[in-house]
Design goal:
Mean pLDDT: 95
Shape: globular
Strand content: 15-25%
Low-confidence stretches: none
Oligomer: single chain
Number of strands: 14
Radius of gyration: 22 Å
CATH class of the largest domain: Alpha Beta
Structural class: alpha/beta
């Protein structure tokens, strides 16, 4: 596929994007806020030179947090601009950074919208987080001599095969980037096979994410509400269909309290309906202000930005997105908090981190989802194993830090430091 063909296809699809926003707004009305930004029309601007980072949603925003904080310290005369695709990503940046940065939506990847964005903010440097390849955006940055880097880049085998089908377009886009900072040697090799050059391996920024300063205190407060004499299992960032598997696995384990935190907030009501349909005793985190009832078996984690607090209050962490073929969610936060980690068989989004965690003794990976009940009971009945896994998780996470400093050194090649 050529970029001309790609652009024509996007223009054909463009009239349907408003319908898509309306459809998503049924469950998440925030999709209708700032909708003009998605077409390249902005009210915000900056008089200072702009360092721009694109963080699609919550995961990318939180992963970029150490880098953004370092940029704020090192380049105080620059304006940090974050772009997002989802309302939850935008909300996460508000929670993390408040008014210290600017935030807008990245426009759809059609030339007039992309040019509207670049002309409005005139970034001196752009950073795409993880695997965000927008080919007209990349081409416009190159044409305007704006350095654009792909940072914390990862590429699963599945994604690599998909990109290979449009090889010419992908190769041109990758080669137009100023530099690529890959998470692992495997990611770097896959990117190079697709045509990328100027690729370096820096590690995963997510290992540098720091928990909130009060996370231990908040975790203790939550645990006091949950009860000290029960084993608490946290099912973090669950995806569609996984909650049923978790409910089946935990149903007959005595004295187990299970916290289920769906990955996407628009699914909170869906998961609550499932709990009701099964007649299960549950309470919602949003209304939890006193110790839970003795017969409560499940907590619906319907709050935002509390995942570290959940980890601090729990005994065992189950990583969602891995029981069914979604590729897995981030296990690194659980490791940072020193929790024994269970993860399902589907981890292609975090394959290297999962393998490293297993080898370090911090992670138990299921061969198939039906093993979940067995593995939960195994950890409950083997406290010494849990303690060993907890120590291993902390060592594993600490041994993998340092990506932020390497990325800063890379960005410095394209920025003249104005630090005081």
């Amino acid at each position: 596929m050529t970029r001309t063909t790609y652009t024509l296809l996007l223009y054909l699809l463009l009239p349907f994007t408003l319908l898509k926003l309306l459809w998503r707004a049924r469950k998440q009305p925030e999709y209708l806020n700032h909708w003009r930004e998605r077409y390249g029309f902005y009210h915000a601007s900056s008089h200072d030179p702009v360092i721009w980072l694109h963080c699609v949603s919550v995961g990318e925003t939180r992963a970029a947090a150490p880098l953004i904080k370092a940029l704020l310290r090192q380049y105080p005369k620059h304006q940090i601009l974050l772009t997002h695709t989802t309302p939850t990503g935008r909300a996460a940046s508000e929670q993390l950074f408040g008014d210290t940065i600017q935030r807008v939506y990245l426009p759809y990847d059609v030339p007039f919208a992309v040019n509207g964005f670049l002309n409005q903010f005139k970034p001196v440097l752009g950073v795409l987080m993880e695997t965000e390849l927008w080919f007209n955006l990349i081409a416009s940055c190159k044409r305007q001599d704006i350095p654009l880097l792909l940072v914390n880049a990862r590429l699963s085998e599945k994604s690599a095969l998909a990109y290979a089908k449009i090889g010419k377009l992908v190769a041109g886009g990758l080669q137009s980037l100023s530099a690529i900072a890959a998470q692992t040697a495997t990611d770097a090799a896959r990117l190079q096979q697709l045509g990328a050059n100027n690729v370096s391996i820096v590690g995963n920024l997510k290992f540098d994410v720091m928990p909130p300063e009060d996370v231990v205190i908040q975790g203790q407060k939550l645990r006091a509400l949950l009860g000290e004499n029960r084993t608490v299992l946290l099912a973090a960032s669950t995806r569609e269909g996984e909650e049923a598997i978790i409910l089946d696995a935990s149903a007959n384990i005595p004295n187990l309290l299970t916290i289920i935190v769906p990955r996407h907030p628009q699914r909170f009501s869906e998961v609550e309906s499932l709990l009701k349909q099964r007649g299960l005793r549950y309470q919602k985190r949003s209304s939890l202000n006193q110790p839970i009832n003795q017969d409560t078996r499940y907590i619906l984690g319907d709050s935002m930005g509390e995942l570290f607090t959940y980890y601090a209050a729990t005994d065992i962490a189950l990583i969602g997105g891995s029981l069914l073929p979604f590729g897995g969610q981030n296990l690194i936060e659980a490791a940072i908090m020193g929790k024994p980690i269970l993860i399902g068989p589907h981890t292609y989004n975090f394959a290297d981190a999962t393998q490293s965690g297993v080898e370090a003794g911090a992670v138990i990976q299921l061969n198939y989802a039906a093993e979940l009940c067995e593995k939960i009971e195994y950890l409950i009945n083997n406290k010494s194993i849990c303690e060993q896994m907890s120590v291993a998780a902390i060592r594993f996470s600490q041994a993998s830090t340092g990506a932020t400093e390497k990325v800063l050194q890379l960005l410095a090649r394209y920025l003249v430091s104005q630090a005081d």
